[in-house]
Design a protein that fits this description.
The chain has 218 residues and is α/β, with parallel strands linked by helices. Helix content is 11%, strand content 25%. The longest helix is centred in the middle third of the chain and has 9 residues, at 139-147.
Amino acid sequence: MNRPAFPVKFIDLTHPLRDGQPSFPGDPLLSIQPQASIDRGDKCNVSQVKMGTHQGTHLDAMVHFVPDGRTVERMPLDWFYGPAHVLRIPKKAREEVTRADFQRHENYLQPGARIIYETGWHRQYGAPNYFTDFPSMTQEAAVYLASRKIRLLGMDVPTPSYDYYEVHHTLLGHGTEIVVVESLANLDRVPDDFIFCGFPLLFAGRDGSPIRAVAMVD
Ligand SMILES: [Zn+2]
């Protein structure tokens, strides 16, 4: 029998969304409450969800930081799907992720590449310091990644850097437009190479969306 032409195993790279879970400091809290409930005598279950567009595992549209940057619906669908490579860059709390950390893997940093870096911080998800003590990318590293013209940059930290304004401008800016995927899960369970899939909800005119990020593995 011929080998199927599609990957056969799916590994979830998404943190679950749960009512009341912590959000990035300053972002709206996540609320998921029953609106209709079979347990309470309604005919069906329907939940009401309130959250920010950058809740949990999600991606940034360019307009998140760039005033006339692309909104979600102006990002081509093929940006969210395709071969990805994981760089293992183990870091401790608050340690810097540097240009040298990426340059070491320069052969993978080709135009159009989807690159995901694993610091190990995904294991801290749910810990009180997840949003405050993550390993942080230097602006120099961001400028270097932008110069390599990669298509997508995924990470297991909630945001690339404490210098979030400068680094986001570098990654999302005109002429660069890297898809920034934040708060990925389970990166220690995937091989270095797989097909990445993570589509945003079509929040027309908006700045980002939670995604269901999945690794499709042969
Ligand atoms: Zn974001």
